[in-house]
Automatic annotation (TrEMBL):
<feature type="compositionally biased region" description="Basic residues">
    <location>
        <begin position="1062"/>
        <end position="1073"/>
    </location>
</feature>
<protein>
    <recommendedName>
        <fullName>Cohesin subunit SA</fullName>
    </recommendedName>
</protein>
<feature type="domain" description="SCD">
    <location>
        <begin position="286"/>
        <end position="371"/>
    </location>
</feature>
<dbReference type="Pfam" id="PF21581">
    <property type="entry name" value="SCD"/>
</dbReference>
<keyword id="KW-0132">Cell division</keyword>
<feature type="compositionally biased region" description="Pro residues">
    <location>
        <begin position="1134"/>
        <end position="1147"/>
    </location>
</feature>
<dbReference type="GO" id="GO:0007062">
    <property type="term" value="P:sister chromatid cohesion"/>
</dbReference>
<dbReference type="GO" id="GO:0005634">
    <property type="term" value="C:nucleus"/>
</dbReference>
<dbReference type="GO" id="GO:0007059">
    <property type="term" value="P:chromosome segregation"/>
</dbReference>
<keyword id="KW-0131">Cell cycle</keyword>
<feature type="compositionally biased region" description="Basic and acidic residues">
    <location>
        <begin position="13"/>
        <end position="23"/>
    </location>
</feature>
<feature type="coiled-coil region">
    <location>
        <begin position="227"/>
        <end position="280"/>
    </location>
</feature>
<dbReference type="GO" id="GO:0000785">
    <property type="term" value="C:chromatin"/>
</dbReference>
<dbReference type="InterPro" id="IPR039662">
    <property type="entry name" value="Cohesin_Scc3/SA"/>
</dbReference>
<keyword id="KW-0175">Coiled coil</keyword>
<keyword id="KW-0158">Chromosome</keyword>
<dbReference type="Pfam" id="PF08514">
    <property type="entry name" value="STAG"/>
</dbReference>
């Protein structure tokens, strides 16, 4: 620690670095209204009379804040650095020249530079510098802050201010570097600067604290570099001294020995001074600021200590300094945790430092492993990279459990996390090669070095039982192991060649996995983008990537054009393997078949595909064959004719066979042969699969399929699979016909034919909705919804008016049948569905739910696009609460879309759904039901949910809400009580449900709705007070509440933030006038409903007293856990009691995170839009973390540079034992983090 008497100015270090402001430094603005200067504008410093220092005449004209001789002011040092146009070397040299002439004036410029870099308008004068104390100057500068902004240069946006931060740091580094040989040892300049920065870093002003901490840390970094150079020079001097002393006496130069001794003594003294300076910065700034309340400040400290440990590892890389990084791994802010990890990466990268990191690794390894699941993806990525470096340094540090926790992250949906995990996996499992292997000649095929690595990849994929996404695994390892993954020659050899003697052959399951991985690698190489669900989409490839892509496509085509036919021949009976293999031609460069003279291999491929079509009836295999033909039948390639002929021959045979089998099958009547049925089904499956991707219109499949479907309706005993595929095939016929007609070159007869076929097919599907078979009904329903969407009124949009004759509007009977299907097959309990389908396993339940969701979504699309009447949605909306977990998102989105189309009709549909539920309840419970019953409460809760969907903007939903109340009132009084007028109407209780929407009415509309309600009421109704009339009373009061209170009306555009104290400006009169005028038209429409209706004289009904009182001021959400920072006892100074002291909040456990106690110190709550200038600077210090300290060396915090060779023993500085309990709360040690987001099907 530098002693105060050594300073030649009153601006000195505080005796105790832990002290806070004394009572005489309290700010005049305790509420923090003095915001920090945000525009970067500073006042020009004016010199007081007699302030001109020594040598000012020679220094005039330099960019250091001096006056010029002609009386004009120069640009200040802050402006020079901010502009960044001058070389920093010349700027510093100018300042050093000025310092040599007049060090007081130059130091004053430097002090003002730091003040202005903090965004303060104030300027420290020479008088203040000479006569005022440290704390007094800081308080004076605090008063100079701009009140209108909370920004300061380090936080301002824009390229200029981003450059300013780097220029600011560069200035400090260059300043120390240029002064390292003389000025920093003059016991004046550095003492003054360190004292200033220490005082500013202890300020409660964020701008001062942030700026000075950054400056102090960069100053420390520069001093560490100086100390390192001194250490090197001392070692060199010592070596020279010993070499000279070991010479023979006759050859020894005594003068040189004395000179070397003197030089070593001088270097030792300089090093001692540097140590004192670094100790002052470390104890005065770092120890307090690394646990600052502001995350940016904590991040600066951790980033710089990482630089010190890496730059001067002999002095700083020990447990006394590593502990700060280890503790801060538990920081609650992701950016601070990120700095910890990057700092550690720089240390673990150097293998020579591993020995010094052993204890740290053992203490904090578990924490680093847990951070791979951090909620911040950037932190998780860096944690994985750090573990990769740890793994690279030593294989024994990480246990198998540690590695497994990283392995499964290769399946994460977040690509950077997955790529980092892929690199870790590659380092662990694939990078261990024997030295002998590298010296051996390169072999190809299954004898290559990659063969075992590819097998290891397959084994790993199969062992990951929870994941079946080979594409994700390949993408994760693509960046680090692309050479391995693109060794397709080795993969082909493993599949086709016989195993070597003594080599174990791949099992069937391993071969399936290898083929899947091989397909994924080919897709990745050909498409050059991540799989679906990982990444934001296709990106523009660079020239190098495009060349690599073309080269890979060429190589894969040359390899697999030859290898694919024998692979298909070997695995032709295995459906899963064949399906994957048949996808390979989609990624080929087909021109190579011609240029490479590979036509014979193409013929072999077409022959194999034909045989597979004849062997298989599996839908996936047939569709893969169809897509392969489609990929090969591209007219731009010369192989088109050859493939087209093969395809036509295959389809001719299939269609002829189908027509022949169908004729025989239909002639058999009601008792068809099972073999004939199977033949018809298998052929129909093949035709349907090909019709999906190929136009088969010339074979006229509509007639035969329609005849088949018609026979099924008449006889009722058609096998369900035949009906399902016949419906699908006919659907494809209609769509291909529409595609031809849409081209515009068709004849009028084609349009008429399509219209007839489409309507006949829709009628056929409607008839099949009444089938007894569920699968058939689902297929018919899905196709009907698709056809109604395709041939709706939107078919003529986009300039396609020629298609208007094809528009098909479903009749009421069809709409009713579609709705009945949804109610019978979608809104059912899970148990009922399981009993009907026989699904007991969890996967079956999920699949069944997925199917039902698709059915509901298909029908909801008809509602959204106005294909069916919107009021049919009432039967859907009323299921919102009951089936919220299964279909809540679909129903809510449907309500949102219908509201965008027609707000009023949507509101009518919502109230209709509530009315239907109310009628159902009446039929079940009878008129005298209990309003506390679960059924009635459920309807009220549904109404509340509906009300919430209208949002906060009452102007946008004004008419819709009014119409909703109108329909609700009419429904409530629709059914009179058969017992007489003295009894409430049967539906009167519906008003209790309707009251849930009263809060959405504007004040003016509440009066109008109340007047409309009175038209239905008699004089006797107004006098009733029995329980049965309570719905009417409560509804009336909900309409009258706030009717005369302007504050109860929420106007569009006023946010919740506007309700704070600071927004007490009177609302413009024009706004109220507009609202009042807007009520007129609505009132006229309502009151003209029935001119003959007499409005009885109403007695004023009593208002219900609201139990909800409006707060005059609301806290922000974050204020609920912000209060007074709890200061350690040794850091707290006596202060006057605050006027508004927020009690500390007790942290409540939530998942893996327990928040810190935040207690704000001040005299009142801060306004919502204002950044507090005076704030607390230390994190909570309650709790203990001795378990983190166990085994760590915490003897001293003093910086003690290591002794050079034969260095004299130095007395240790006074130990300063550090209490780790003041670092952070115990609760921070378990940081809230989220698991990886693995892709799920």
């Amino acid at each position: 620690m530098i002693a105060a008497p050594e300073l030649q100015t009153d601006f000195h270090y505080p005796q105790d670095t832990d002290t806070r402001f004394s009572s005489d430094t309290d700010f005049d603005d305790p509420d923090g209204r003095s915001a920090v200067q945000g525009k970067g504008k500073v006042k020009k410093g004016k010199k007081a009379p007699g302030e001109k220092g020594k040598g000012a005449g020679k220094g005039a004209g330099r960019l250091n804040g001096h006056h010029q001789e002609n009386g004009m002011e120069n640009v200040m040092l802050f402006e020079v650095v901010k502009l960044g146009k001058s070389a920093m070397q010349s700027v510093v040299d100018d300042w050093i020249e000025s310092y040599k002439h007049d060090r007081d004036t130059a130091l004053l410029d430097l002090i003002n530079f730091f003040i202005q870099c903090s965004g303060c308008k104030g300027v420290v004068s020479g008088e203040m510098f000479r006569h005022m104390q440290n704390s007094e100057i800081i308080r004076k500068m605090t008063e100079e802050f701009d009140e209108d902004s909370g920004d300061y240069p380090l936080t301002m946006a824009g390229p200029q201010w981003k450059k300013f931060k780097s220029s600011f740091c560069e200035f400090i580094g260059v300043l120390v570097r240029q002064c390292q040989y003389s000025i920093i040892y003059d016991e004046y300049m550095m003492d003054t600067v360190i004292s200033l920065l220490t005082g500013l870093s202890d300020s409660q002003v964020r701008a001062f604290r942030h700026t000075s901490t950054l400056a102090a840390m960069k100053l420390m970094t520069a001093l560490v570099n100086v100390a390192l150079n001194l250490s090197i020079n001392m070692d060199n001097t010592q070596r020279q001294y010993e070499a000279e002393r070991n010479k023979m006496i006759g050859k020894r130069a005594n003068d040189r020995l004395e000179l070397l001794l003197q030089k070593r003594k001088e270097l030792q003294e300089n090093q001692d001074e540097i140590e004192n300076m670094m100790n002052a910065i470390f104890k005065g700034v770092f120890v307090h600021r690394y646990r600052d309340a502001i995350a940016e400040i904590r991040a600066i400290c951790i980033e710089e200590i990482g630089v010190w440990m890496k730059m001067y590892s002999d002095a700083f890389l020990n447990d006394s300094y590593l502990k700060y990084v280890g503790w801060t791994l538990h920081d609650k802010q992701g950016e601070v945790r990120l700095k910890c990890l990057t700092a550690l990466q720089g240390l673990y990268y150097n293998r020579e430092l591993n020995a010094k990191l052993e204890l740290f690794t053992s203490r904090f390894k578990d924490r680093i492993v847990s951070m791979t699941l951090d909620k911040e993806y950037d932190v998780a990525v860096q944690a994985i990279k750090l573990l990769t470096l740890v793994l690279h340094s030593s294989d024994e540090v990480l246990t198998a459990e540690d590695c497994e926790s990283v392995y499964h992250l290769v399946y994460s949906a977040h690509r950077p996390v997955a790529v980092a995990a892929g690199e870790f996996l590659f380092k662990k499992l694939f990078s261990h090669r024997d030295i002998e292997d590298d010296s051996m000649p390169k072999r190809r095929g299954r004898q290559s070095l990659n063969a075992n690595l590819i097998k290891t990849t397959v084994f790993f994929f199969l062992e990951s039982e929870l994941h079946e996404h080979a594409a994700y695994l390949v993408d994760s390892m693509w960046d680090c192991a692309s050479e391995l993954l693109k060794d397709w020659e080795c993969m082909i050899s493993l599949l086709l060649d016989e195993p070597l003697p003594g080599e174990e052959a791949l099992t069937d399951r391993q071969e399936t996995a290898l083929i899947e991985i091989m397909l994924c690698t080919i897709r990745q190489a050909a498409e050059c983008h991540p799989p679906v669900g990982r990444g934001t989409g296709k990106r523009v490839l660079t020239a190098k990537e495009k060349k690599t892509q073309l080269d890979d496509r060429t190589r894969m085509t040359e390899l697999f054009a030859v290898a694919l036919p024998p692979l298909l021949a070997k695995y032709s009976v295995d459906a899963e393997k064949v399906t994957n293999l048949l996808q390979l031609p989609q990624f080929f460069d087909l021109e190579i078949y011609t240029t490479g003279r590979l036509e014979k291999h193409l013929e072999s491929l077409l022959r194999q595909i034909r045989e597979i079509v004849e062997k298989h009836t599996d839908t996936d295999v047939l569709e893969a064959c169809s897509k392969t033909y489609h990929a090969l039948c591209s007219e731009e390639f010369t192989i088109f004719n050859r493939v087209d002929i093969a395809r036509s021959q295959l389809l001719d045979e299939l269609v002829d066979k189908f027509n022949r089998l169908l004729e025989d099958f239909l002639q058999e009547g009601e008792d068809p042969d099972e073999d004939d049925a199977y033949q018809v089904l298998s052929t129909l499956k093949r035709i349907t699969a090909f019709h999906n991707a190929h136009d088969l219109s010339k074979w006229d499949l509509f007639t035969s399929n329609y005849k088949l479907l018609n026979t099924g309706i008449e006889n009722g005993d058609m096998p369900e699979q035949i009906v399902i595929h016949a419906l699908q095939c006919t659907h494809y016929v209609i769509l291909w016909h529409l595609a031809k007609v849409s081209e515009g070159s068709c004849k009028k007869e084609d349009m008429v034919t399509l219209r007839k076929q489409m309507r006949a097919f829709c009628l056929m599907c409607q008839r099949y909705l009444a089938s007894v078979n569920t699968a058939v009904k689902e297929q018919a329903f899905t196709i009907l919804c698709d056809l109604l969407m395709i041939f709706s009124h939107q078919i003529i949009s986009g300039g396609r008016e020629i298609l208007e004759p094809l528009v098909y509007t479903p009749e009421a009977s069809l709409q009713s049948e579609l709705l009945s299907f949804i109610l019978d097959h979608v809104f059912i309990d899970q148990d009922e569905d399981n009993n009907s389908t026989g699904l007991d396993d969890e996967a079956g339940k999920i699949e069944a739910l997925h199917k039902r969701r698709n059915l509901l979504a298909a029908y909801c699309k008809l509602i959204i696009y106005n294909v069916v009447e919107m009021n049919t949605g009432a039967d859907i909306f009323k299921q919102y609460m009951r089936y919220y977990n299964d279909y809540g998102d679909i129903i809510k989105e449907t309500m949102s879309k219908t509201r965008q189309i027609d707000k009023i009709q949507c509101a009518k549909t919502l109230i209709l759904s509530l009315q239907q539920l109310f009628n159902e309840m009446l039929s079940d419970l009878g008129p005298g039901f209990d309003r506390s019953s679960s059924a009635f409460c459920g309807i009220k809760e549904l109404a509340r949910r509906f009300s919430l969907t209208f949002g906060l903007d009452q102007l946008k939903t004004r008419e819709a809400i009014a119409m909703l109340h109108k329909d609700g009132i009419e429904f409530a009084f629709k059914e009179p009580n058969p017992q007489g007028e003295g009894y409430p109407p049967l539906n009167l209780a519906f008003l209790d449900i309707l009251s849930e929407f009263s809060s959405k009415l504007m004040r003016q509309d509440k009066r109008t709705v109340h007047m409309y309600l009175e038209r239905f009421m008699t004089f006797q109704m107004a006098l009733q007070r029995e329980d049965c009339w309570l719905p009417l009373i409560s509804y009336r009061n909900s309409l009258q509440a706030g009717g005369d209170d302007d504050t109860m009306s929420v106007v569009s555009g006023i946010s919740s933030r506007g309700s704070t104290i600071r927004n007490k400006k009177p609302k413009p009169v024009t706004g109220k006038r507009k609202l009042s005028e807007g009520t007129t038209s609505l009132t006229i429409v309502w009151l003209n409903r029935d001119q003959s209706m007499q409005t009885p004289v109403m007695m004023p009904s009593p208002h219900l007293t609201s139990t909800v009182m409006r707060d005059t001021k609301r806290l922000r959400p974050e204020d609920s856990y912000m209060g007074v920072y709890t200061m350690p006892p040794e850091q707290q100074q006596p202060q006057p009691p605050p006027q508004h002291h927020a009690p500390p909040q007790t942290p409540q456990p939530h998942h893996h995170q327990t928040p810190l106690d935040y207690n704000r110190r001040g005299s009142g709550l801060m306004e919502d839009d204002e950044e507090p200038i005076v704030e607390d600077v230390m994190m909570s210090s309650e709790g203990r973390i001795e378990d983190l300290n166990e085994g760590m060396d915490f003897d001293t915090m003093d910086i003690d540079l290591p002794a050079s060779k034969n260095r004299r023993e130095r007395s240790e500085l006074k130990p300063d034992f550090f209490d780790p309990a003041s670092i952070m709360d115990e609760s921070v040690r378990t940081t809230h983090f989220l698991g990886y987001d693995a892709f799920q099907r």
